[in-house]
């Protein structure tokens, strides 16, 4: 941004709509409308010429719609963040806007408060995390020591919906990998607004990832060591902020920088996440070597998992990057595990038994089950999963060195997928 002023470009084919948005923004002292465009193509040209901080983009326009225009602006002016506006707000529309590069979505008609909140929120996320990548390329060691090479593997634990046991698996998996290897393991709580890793590990500490945010461009081992909290198992924790308000200060850039540094400090980085495909979660998944998608034996969970897999294919992830973990396996759901695997056309790499009483006690005590009851059948299956992931990584390292960088970057892969999909 230019000083403290948020520079905004409005793109809408309806003149009245453009003027109304401009009027809403006119009396905000920190927001300046620098241009208005009546079409997607004109919007691209003005974005290139004016380099706005925010582009308010209408979705439905003749000739070139907002999706296509957003894709081009994301590439040509990566410092500009797009907020999509539309009377349509169906899930598929939201997904397409996100994949095109939009950072926020405003459903028309919106209020002054909604507009101002969106503009200011997205302005805090901008610019796109180009600087961190540039630093990495220039030094060979982003935020670390000169010449230092990444050694750690990132395993993110994700879900397409809440309540499937994602955090329970992440905490137990981190401890299981630590016990199996005695190597350095870090557990990151990337469920920023409502993270539960600290509760499940019985850790109450004031140090969180929010302490890194103000110093992200000077982040180094000393600062990270000061923020990490060591659990009794030997696993080190990077905790989520204590309040949703503090979580707002942590962006995808902060997560990307933290994960990049942690791969130089640890052998394994396990990341607990939250449902969704916002910038933060996309940055985590893009950086991951393995993504464990947790699902349960319900039709809604299976449907959501199928949609999740479709999006990861659109993102260009190889099939072996996303692994399916069936949680709470039982014999009374009426859906055999084999049918789930066949429906999703993927192997289930782990089938964790349904043991609600033991797991509830474990959560309430703040003690991972694999540590307190290592012979419990839930623990045995999680340890088997941990062992298979460790063995898989060792085999891969013996065959080929880890690539220095992934594909062509998230935005580039999305553009290619959407253009040819």
Automatic annotation (TrEMBL):
Q: Which GO terms describe its molecular function?
A: ATP binding; ATP hydrolysis activity
The Response regulatory domain extends over: 7-123
A single GO CC term for this protein reads: cytoplasmic side of plasma membrane
Q: Which SUPFAM superfamilies match?
A: CheY-like, P-loop containing nucleoside triphosphate hydrolases
InterPro entries associated with the record: AAA_dom, CheY-like_superfamily, NreC/VraR/RcsB-like_REC, P-loop_NTPase, ParA/MinD_ATPase, Sig_transdc_resp-reg_receiver
Share an example GO biological-process annotation for this protein.
phosphorelay signal transduction system
Regions annotated as coiled coil: none
Q: Which UniProt keywords apply?
A: Phosphoprotein
- Give the CDD domains listed for this entry: REC_NarL-like (cd17535)
4-aspartylphosphate: modified positions? 58
PROSITE patterns noted in UniProt: RESPONSE_REGULATORY
Q: Which PANTHER family match?
A: SEPTUM SITE-DETERMINING PROTEIN MIND HOMOLOG, CHLOROPLASTIC-RELATED, SLR0110 PROTEIN
Specify the protein name: Response regulator receiver protein
What does UniProt list as this organism's lineage?
Answer: Bacteria, Pseudomonadati, Thermomicrobiota, Thermomicrobia, Sphaerobacterales
């Amino acid at each position: 941004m230019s000083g403290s002023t948020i520079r905004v470009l409005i793109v809408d084919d309806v003149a009245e709509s453009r003027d109304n948005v401009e009027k809403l923004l006119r009396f905000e002292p920190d927001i300046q409308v620098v241009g208005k465009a009546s079409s997607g193509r004109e919007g691209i040209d003005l974005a290139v010429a004016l380099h706005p901080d925010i582009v308010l983009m209408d979705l439905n326009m003749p000739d070139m719609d907002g999706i296509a225009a957003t894709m081009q602006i994301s590439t040509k002016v990566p410092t500009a963040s797009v907020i999509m506006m539309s009377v349509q707000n169906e899930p598929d529309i939201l997904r397409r806007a996100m994949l095109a590069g939009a950072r926020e979505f405003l459903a028309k008609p919106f209020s002054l408060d909604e507009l101002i909140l969106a503009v200011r929120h997205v302005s805090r996320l901008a610019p796109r995390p180009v600087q961190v990548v540039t630093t990495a390329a220039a030094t060979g060691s982003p935020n670390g020591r000169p010449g230092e090479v990444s050694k750690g593997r990132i395993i993110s634990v994700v879900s397409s919906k809440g309540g499937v046991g994602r955090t329970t698996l992440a905490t137990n998996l981190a401890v299981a990998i630590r016990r199996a290897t005695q190597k350095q393991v870090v557990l990151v709580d990337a469920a920023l607004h409502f993270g539960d890793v600290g509760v499940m590990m019985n850790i109450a500490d004031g140090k969180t990832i929010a302490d890194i945010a103000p110093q992200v461009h000077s982040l180094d081992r000393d600062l990270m060591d000061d923020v990490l909290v060591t659990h009794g198992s030997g696993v080190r924790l990077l905790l989520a902020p204590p309040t949703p308000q503090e979580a707002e200060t942590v962006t995808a850039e902060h997560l990307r920088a933290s994960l990049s540094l942690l791969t130089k400090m640890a052998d394994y980085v396990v990341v607990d996440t939250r449902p969704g495909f916002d910038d933060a979660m996309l940055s985590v998944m893009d950086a991951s070597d393995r993504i464990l998608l947790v699902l349960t034996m319900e039709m809604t969970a299976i449907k959501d998992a199928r949609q999740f897999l479709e999006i990861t294919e659109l993102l260009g992830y190889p099939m072996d990057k996303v692994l399916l973990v069936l949680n709470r396996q039982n014999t009374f759901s009426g859906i055999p595990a084999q049918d789930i695997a066949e429906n999703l056309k993927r192997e289930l790499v782990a089938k964790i038994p349904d043991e609600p009483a033991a797991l509830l006690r474990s959560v309430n005590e703040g003690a991972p089950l694999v540590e307190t009851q290592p012979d419990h059948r839930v623990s045995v299956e999680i340890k088997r999963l941990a062992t298979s992931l460790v063995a898989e990584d060792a085999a891969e390292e013996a065959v080929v060195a880890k690539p220095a960088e992934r594909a062509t970057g998230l935005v580039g892969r999305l553009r290619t997928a959407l253009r040819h999909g």
